[in-house]
Amino acid sequence: MTTPTSTRWLPIREAVRARLAGALTDLAAVVQDREAFDNLAATQYPAVGVFFGDRAGEERPQWVANRRDHEYAIEVWVAVRNLASAQAAEDELFAWVEAVEDALRGDPTLGGLVRNLAGGLVARGVAREDNF
Q1: What pTM value is reported for the model?
Q2: From CA 124, how far away is CA 114, in angstroms rounded?
Q3: In angstroms, rounded to a whole number, what is the distance separating the alpha carbons of residues 61 and 106?
Q4: pLDDT per residue over 34-93, tens digit each?
């Protein structure tokens, strides 16, 4: 017998992706594959990537309640491109991060799919592109 693999996290990622795509209509791309996100063309910015974190599906046993709680780490990456200045690019990035947070805060249970959705800014990175 092969080792069983849980697929209950798939609808959660899809719900996050669908929520962002529906709420943030000015996005040029919403992708769910890291490689595709890394290879987006400049014409596809602003973009959001929805990926699974390292702890996807981590189980927390609840001995008092007869249920198993699972924690899913979903990473949402935002990429922007602004040729005006570094400050303009950073301002645009944070505006999109706030828009992502607001979109997810608008439906914290993802339509009843999860009981609790918590999130926040974990890391920020800047990459300078020499070739425009």
Answers
A1: 0.73
A2: 27
A3: 29
A4: 888 888 887 888 999 888 766 555 555 555 555 556 667 788 888 888 888 888 888 998
pLDDT in tens, 1-44: 454 455 566 788 888 888 989 999 998 998 888 888 888 887 88
Collapse the DSSP code of 96 into the 3-class scheme (helix H, G, I; strand E, B; otherwise coil) and give the result. helix
Whole-number Cα distances in Å, 60 to 10, 31, 55, 67, 101: 19, 29, 11, 9, 25
Return the closest-CA partner of residue 37 out of 26, 22, 27, 50: 50
CA distance 86 to 94: 12
pLDDT at 73: 75
Structure confidence at residue 2 (pLDDT):
52
Could you give the CA distance from residue 101 to residue 22 in angstroms, rounded to a whole number? 14
For residue 48, the SS3 value is: strand
